Amino acid sequence: MSKLEQVLILEPSGELKFKGPFTEVVTSNLKLNNPTDKRVCFKVKTTAPRRYCVRPNSGVVEPSSSINVSVMLQPFDYDPQEKNKHKFMVQSMFAPEGGIDNETMINMWKDADQTQLMDSKLKCVFELPPEALQALAKGKTNVFKLETSTPPPRKSVSAPSIVKRVPARPIKNDLDAAKEAKEVVAVPPVKPNIPKPSPEAKRSVTQEATVAVKAVNVGSSASDSDMKKVLDECRRLQAEVSKLQAENAQIKDDGLRQRKATPSDNQTFTTEFAPVAQRSAIPPVLYLLAALILGFIIGKFIL
Question: What is its main location (predicted)?
């Protein structure tokens, strides 16, 4: 099946030229023209993606308009005898209706129908300036290599020595020469000069510590005295409560005695109901106990 003919007009149409020297970035421009009345999507591919940088590498060309694509060749060591096989391909297809963002563009190229794609191929051509051609004719090939600057040699800096040499005395004879040889003396370490505290300072520190201890003792004694006062107050209140209870009991006894001493107006009435009064003379504690036992038995049966 034959492919569709490319609707975009490429300038240049067959090859991209890059002019050296190639010790720095070399840029070649590619113009894409859309003569149709429809929007056209494009995408630029290459066989050497690490050697080139393309901006923009994809996009949309509006109807009856054009767009410029910059193809930047990265610096490298050019070898004239090496055969150049770098190529570019511009793919295109008609854009769908509606807005197109980056995600839509990626999905559109991923799911594109291969029969609807159009493409154009371009070769890469490396051209040399006249001075580079003359150098090549003379056999100089180092002009095409990248300049690499070597760092200057580091100077060795010797650390200051802490060793002191004692000058030798004049030699009188062999024995004196053996005794009075050069000696190496190490400089003793310097001790930090820390001032000692004066007696007045020691006295002031001791006095402050004593005052702090006394303050703590006073605080503790004050708290002990407060506790004693609280305990005494509690004992006094307990004694008053006991006294009031005793007075209350005494008042009850006096009331009972007075009731027994004074005859009541309802003596006849109460006498007529003596049997009932005798039955009701059972202590209330027994009624309470009986109610508790009865409630316990009923609760046991229910549960």
Answer: endoplasmic reticulum
How many helices, marked H, and strands, marked E, lie in the chain?
7, 11
Q: Looking at the domain assignment, is residue 257 inside a domain?
A: no
Residue 223 lies in a domain: no
Of 5, 30, 4, 1, which is closest to residue 18 (Cα–Cα)? 30
Domain that holds residue 128: 9-134
pLDDT in tens, the chain (303 residues): 567 899 999 999 999 999 988 999 999 999 999 999 999 999 999 999 999 999 999 999 999 999 999 999 999 998 888 888 999 999 999 998 888 888 889 999 999 998 999 999 999 999 988 887 777 777 655 555 655 555 555 655 554 444 445 455 554 454 454 455 444 444 455 555 555 556 666 666 566 666 555 554 545 554 667 777 777 877 887 888 888 888 888 888 877 776 665 554 444 444 344 444 444 455 666 777 778 788 777 877 676
Alpha helix ranges (H) inside the chain: 102-110, 130-137, 174-179, 199-261, 267-272, 274-279, 284-302
Instruction: Using a cut of 0.85, tell me whether the model's pTM lies above it.
Output: no
Q: Domain for residue 19, yes or no?
A: yes
- Is residue 270 domain-resident? no
Neighbours of 198 (CB within 10 A): 9
CATH number at residue 58: 2.60.40.10
